[in-house]
Amino acid sequence: MFYREAGQFKATYQEDLQAFPIRQDKIGIGIWLAIAYLYIPFFGIPGLEYGFALNAIMIPVLIFTITTIGLNILVGFTGQISLGTGAFMGVGAYSCYKLTSYFPDTNIIVLILASGFVAAAVGALFGLPSLRIKGFYLVVATLAAQFFLEWCFIRIGWLYNFNPSGAIEVPQREVFGVIVTGAAAEPATRYLVVLTILVFLTVIAGNIVRGRIGRSWMMIRDMDIAAELIGVRPLRAKLSAFAVSSYYCGVSGALMVFLWLGAAEVESFDVNHSFLYLFMVILGGLGSITGSYMGAAFIWTFPIILKEVGKRVFDINPIVMENVSLVAIGVMIVFILIKEPHGLARLWQLVKQKLRIWPFPH
Amino acid sequence: MGDIIYGIFADPFVQMWQMPDFLMQVLWEGFVSGILYALIALGFVLIFKASGIFNFAQGIMVVFSGLTLVGLHALGVPAWLALLLTLATMYALAYSVERLILRNLVNQPDIILFMATIGLTNILIGMGQWIFGGETKTMITKELFLPSGSSVWEPGGGLVIFQHIDIAAAVIAAALIVGLAFFFSKTKVGRALRAVADDHQASLSVGISLNHIWVITWFAAGIVALVTGIMWGARSDVSFSLQIIALKALPVLVLGGFTSVPGAIVGGLIIGIGEKVFEIYWGPLFGSGVEGWFAYVIALVFLLYRPQGLFGEKIIERV
Amino acid sequence: MRRSRGNRVNEHGSGIEGEQVKDTATNYVTEDGRTIGGVIMEMKNITLRFGGVVAIKDASFDIHEGEIRAIIGPNGAGKSSMLNVINGFYHPQEGEVWFRGEKRPSMKPYEIAEQGIARTFQNIALFHGMTTVENVMTGRQLMMKKNFFWQMLRVGPALDEEVKHRRKCEEIIDFLEIQAIRKTPVGSLPYGLQKRVELARALAMEPKLLLLDEPMAGMNVEEKEDMSRFILDVNDQYGTTIALIEHDMSVVMDLADRVVVLDYGKMLADGTPDEVQRNQAVIDAYLGVEH
What we know:
- The structure holds three protein chains of three kinds.
- Helices cover 73% and strands 3% of the residues of chain B.
- Chain B has helices spanning 2-9, 11-18, 20-51, 58-74, 79-101, 110-132, 164-186, 188-198, 200-205, 210-236, 242-247, 249-256, 261-286, 291-305; strands spanning 150-153, 160-163.
- In chain B, strands 1-2 form a two-stranded antiparallel ribbon.
- Chain C is 34% helix and 24% strand.
- In chain C, a hairpin with a 5-residue loop joins strand 1 (8-9) and strand 2.
- Chain C is globular and about 65 Å long.
- Chains A and B meet through helix 6, helix 10 and helix 12 of A and helix 6, helix 12 and helix 14 of B.
């Protein structure tokens, strides 16, 4: 009875085309935003130490949500599988590093958003093979991108300013007088910047996906031959998907290094990470932006929760719990693929269905 | 500029010519790693031929089988028994995978199946690390009667070293491949496997039990994985990093064709020898580590111009 | 549903009975008031081969603007291949395709769509990840122009464009009476309704030439009557030229203005349904003796 839509009529097409046409959804989102902006930066997460809550949970989850949205655009909306996500994040991170080395006085947020374009260009380039290679075989092409770019990150000293350790260290940068990056940046500051960028990018992704470009992506995904016969140009559709997806991955890579880790080495962008992000997409739900939020949050926090519970309640070694969580995530992935390929997002929709008629059974 | 052109087109060949024994060494090293790539790819081909599933977990099955073997032996089990028990474990694994995972994903697109086997990989890594611990282990080569030491060949005053274990690996791999070829073409089960690889529905209609075939296939792949795990572990210890090396089997399959046993071998050798030669002779020009991506770039070129590989079947798309 | 198609009336009102209507440059008006124009598409000596198999051998016929042209023949006669040649998916090794007075070069499928040719498929090719209305909206893809920047913003020109096209799609949905299933994912629809949604999507493209590949396949009598009515309405109301492949002779008799008969890739006959039905070669190959 809480989720009743009765009485909410759409009198115009504009109303019908909204992202969240049902009033309860709008209220829900409002509550989430309120908590995110007004509660968490001041109080963290109840029950957890403040620094830990922000640095180990909230900031990475938000950053990976951006990554997941990006990868979802490619895999979930356009049906092009990619195992190069880690490397594209690296492109964003290293681009941002070089940009801020050359323009140390430019607003770092602008540079982060700009570095996404470099990633987009690289992504579009490595996306060219998708015009000839379909379905599963594309994995090999994206792995070529992944390993080649990883090699570039090591071999091209210019990328990390010839630092002998091969790693990049994030310099301190300020925005309007507030320190945003570097060791002195406050967790709350970094959290709010990441949050705002995420909200902004989510709105844009939602808009694109519901419009003609998003539709062309989904047409390619569902039946590329029929799509072409309707007038969709596969080159434009696929390359735009790669470009937009890589943009998001690039920005999230820059954020990961500049606003979370503070430093980075090649390992942060390796193929294991590419698999991790793919898991986030699958679990959250292919082709769902809401699902991207859920998938990223779940995959990241589940091992942490497991380890904490194991330690506090059962006194089990965290390494054991790490392995348990690996097994559990693997099991969940297989389970989701068998039972509900649309992931947590669909499960959430089912919950809402039940809420419509609750407390009645049907 | 002239230097670069010379460096790409002339210098490497000059070096090869001037030091033929070194070239032989490089070729031999490449050959051996090529054989091992081929073995991993073989496991993939078996499963893909029979069930159309690209079992990405083949890599971790290599590691898992090696670990089980060593782990059992560490518990005091004699080598021959450990071998048998590992085989039994691989069979149990094959059976459970077929029952729990494959059976439920019969009509799904390739990508879904691929991602399911990635999930399976996670499960096996987690279980492997849980049961056996994450540290690197040594393969029980002595107990398995595998040779050690090396022989030296000195052609015309030069020096080429052959590790005995490498020779053993080549021989065992060759034997395995011949055995499998025989199996596919001459035995009843082998023929049934080929029928299933061609068309599931049709095979069902002539009375072939799909599930039966699949279990046999996964078991065979498990044997191949075990042999690979033993051989690879003997050359460079058993650890989870092997799993990433197993990813290399993908380019091998692209080159050879996903459904071809000879393709897996030829592809493996080309990749193995190719990447070694490229790394040694052209590596200094580009910077070391090119073998990390060389195989994939070659595979990419093949996918663009000859997607069925050297031996695979041409894929035709109908409207 | 039955309409008499046999008698044609020229501009001066006198009937032309039993004559083969071929290569007329002038428009004429049929008995039931529809205008049939000049030649919109012409196939000249088309030969299509797949490796060693000859799918179509030296076939030539034309399609007039505003008419309903049926392509019939036994299974494997090359009908679907012919349709694929018309919509540019297959490129014939020999022969020419002329569309609207111009020889058509080898084109990509999306260029064909831009020319105004739409089609439906025998095994439905709907986008299963979308609902009915979303599928119909995909037909408007070529007409939506607002660039990337406006798409990101959505509010403003992009949304206005979206609403404009949505309105048009809803008209088509009303026309084909599928309002009740607008928000249903197409995968869960029964076969007959899926075919109707596919027709709606093709109509959304506002095509000059509509190709229907066995639109009645797998339907019961009632569904066939509905679909036939819709096809006639489309031709009547929108003036769309239609070429369709069909097996059911009674449907062909009622719907088609002219018929092409193929057998083993070769043309067997070309004329009005009456003429074709009486053609001995066609009877021998395909129709059998009438009881």
